[in-house]
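To make the argument concrete, we let one protein speak, a sequence paired with a row of structure tokens, as a model reads it:
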Amino acid sequence: MLTGVYAPIFNDYSDPERLIELAIAAEQAGYDGFYIWDHLAIDPSGALELADATVVLAAIAQATSTLKLGPMITPLARRRPWKVAKELATLDKLSHGRVVFGVGLGEPAEVEFGAFAEDASAKGRAERLDEGLDLVSRFMRGERVDHHGKHYNVDNVALRPQSLQQPRPQFWVAASLPARAGLRRAARWDGCFPIRVPDEIRGGTMTMTSWDKWWLSPEGIAEAVSIVSEQRGDLDNYAMVATGSTLDDNAQSSAKKLASYAAAGANWWLEWVDEKPGTFDRTLELIKRGAPAPS
């Protein structure tokens, strides 16, 4: 099982230099990846400062040499697919082929989309996500794209250079259980990041408490694995991602926890970083202790 750090971009982590420092520490501690949230305005009051994911990832790419890195997740429906493809291809070259593209519908929809007069409906976001994913993939493969769809039009354009990774970086698609549409979408790509969006978040605003409500149990991961496997036929070279926290656990407890997720079918573990104000220094020291490993 590979391990990564999953860091927010607000509160202590709105400072890009702190995210860079955390990424360097994670690499030195033996983690395999470093992934960050991608949001514009998760707090409707406007009180939270948020860093830009793409800019921070570019700086992290320069400061590290082995970590896989990427947004987790980018709400593609609020982005222009060709601009995203160009950013990812540049980031992939800058990082010497270490980019992973985490992508999904985006929550909370009323803030991330509705506040900017964009279609926040699940149907509209899903349509733009599916159409956009195909376009980003084609651009990153170096194809000349001629596309006339419901939401996007491209008139015979190729973007150069294409990504360093061939045919393109891996696309990990978020899926919100208990719904299965996201799992079916993820099965068409290279990885799945299944979570459970709490009821108080759906269609509303994001609260900054009880992040463990988002995490799936090993049984939940096993359910996701079963559905994705049924859709794909196999999970060869496929990323199945579990997330949670082991930073406060001792080595034996964290090993046991990761082993239970690995047994359920997960091959990546993302360490969910505590986002509360004033936690950065402690989190940094915990990360430096070393990456967890299954027993």
Observations:
- The mean pLDDT is 93.
- Residues 2-288 form a domain with the TIM Barrel fold (CATH 3.20.20.30).
